[in-house]
Structure to design on (347 residues):
């Protein structure tokens, strides 16, 4: 077994504290990654606090993992020692269902083994995530990193990056189309970067008026403060596509009215509470409301390669392990520009 140091939550109501645990010895197709950095996603906070229900403790969160390969199993073909590698939101899947066969493992109809808050395919070994010093993962669920950017800026691409890239590709965002990004946080700021890189006219819809300059600096063409303006009238029938990244309960109906005929709003954020949906905003303009979950391994690699080519990384604040709990408090009140990344050499 491999001894690992990390940070864990022991319950929904206690802070994360240092936690030592063991990972499996390498199987023939496993690689060992010494973790350099792990991003803090709002999904970590939702799960640590059991806001979605069903959380498993102790929980070592973290699914925006980057580091260096230090050991490979006997049959590993795609990685060698000293390669940079990434791990995202899942570390295994059934590999046989329709979604897995379609390279969309995130929608696995069998057992999607998420990187933490889950159990391995043996049904009993808990999975522990990236707030830790090292991780052992099957090479088929690891990503190659070729970007020259710092690993810290790349880490958030493993979740926030692919979660926003995937729907832009799936709904075929075209040059010149109007993209709305609701919520300028970890996901939102990546959505702006991708939308701009793909040639769209990007509008940020934010409940934080003080983010206007940031939105413009990220390349957004327009900024709308949703708590000040009657924005649904101002932007009536405006957007081709909206990515909604908001982590808290809010009124979807108002945003739906800003979509053009046949346009789509994609829900990415997962507020703990459900919301009321009115029929008229949908039926009057044949609008669509959809959802999207992260991305498959193939598409995550495509996104990382796209980011390497376009020099796209995340805007980050690197913190030592001992500041994780403060970072959670700050993330919840929106005091982060735009992703906390844990320095995993500090465990
Ligand atoms: P984040 O950095 O905290 O950003 C969330 C943003 O939502 C905030 O920056 C804020 O933007 C907005 N917001 C927060 N509270 C709000 C409120 N009360 N009313 C209106 N807007 C509010 O979080 P994140 O890491 O980007 O994650 C966002 C959500 O996506 C989370 O629920 C997370 O679990 C989910 N997620 C989903 C997937 C997926 O596969 N679908 C993947 C990763 C994360 P403004 O200040 O600009 O309004
Ligand atoms: Zn995430
Ligand atoms: Zn499957």
């Amino acid at each position: 077994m491999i001894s690992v140091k990390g940070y864990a939550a022991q319950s929904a109501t206690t802070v994360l504290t240092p936690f030592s645990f063991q990972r499996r010895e390498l199987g023939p197709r496993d690689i060992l990654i010494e973790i350099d950095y792990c991003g803090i996603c709002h999904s970590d906070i939702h799960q640590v606090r059991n806001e979605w229900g069903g959380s498993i403790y102790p929980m070592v969160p973290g699914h925006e993992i980057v580091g260096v390969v230090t050991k490979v199993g006997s049959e590993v073909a795609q990685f060698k020692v000293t390669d940079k590698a990434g791990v995202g939101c899942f570390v295994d899947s059934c590999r046989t269902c329709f979604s897995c066969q379609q390279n969309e493992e995130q929608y696995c109809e069998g057992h999607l083994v998420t990187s933490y808050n889950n159990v391995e395919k043996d049904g009993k070994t808990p999975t522990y995530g990236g707030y830790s010093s090292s991780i052992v993962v099957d090479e088929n669920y690891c990503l190659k990193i070729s970007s020259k950017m710092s690993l810290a800026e790349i880490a958030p691409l493993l979740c926030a990056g692919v979660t926003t890239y995937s729907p832009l590709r799936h709904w075929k965002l075209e040059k010149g189309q109007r993209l709305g990004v609701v919520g300028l946080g970890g996901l939102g700021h990546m959505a702006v970067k991708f939308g701009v890189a793909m040639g769209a006219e990007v509008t940020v819809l934010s409940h934080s008026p003080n983010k206007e300059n940031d939105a413009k600096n990220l390349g957004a063409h327009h900024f709308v403060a949703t708590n000040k303006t009657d924005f649904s009238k101002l932007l009536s029938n405006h957007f081709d596509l909206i990515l909604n990244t908001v982590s808290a309960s809010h009124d979807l109906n108002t945003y739906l009215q800003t979509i053009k005929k046949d346009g789509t709003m994609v829900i990415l954020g997962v507020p703990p509470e459900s919301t009321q949906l009115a029929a008229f905003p949908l039926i009057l303009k044949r609008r669509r409301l959809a959802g999207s979950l992260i991305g498959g391994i193939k598409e995550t690699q495509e996104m990382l390669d796209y980011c390497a080519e376009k020099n796209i990384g995340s805007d980050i604040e690197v913190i030592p392990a001992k500041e994780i709990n403060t970072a959670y408090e700050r993330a919840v009140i929106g005091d982060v520009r735009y992703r906390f990344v844990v320095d995993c050499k500090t465990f």
Summary: Residues 93-94, 97, 99-100, 108-110 surround zinc ion (ligand 3) (CB under 6 Å). The first strand starts at residue 2 and ends at 8. Residues 38 and 210 are 27 Å apart (CA to CA). The mean pLDDT is 97.
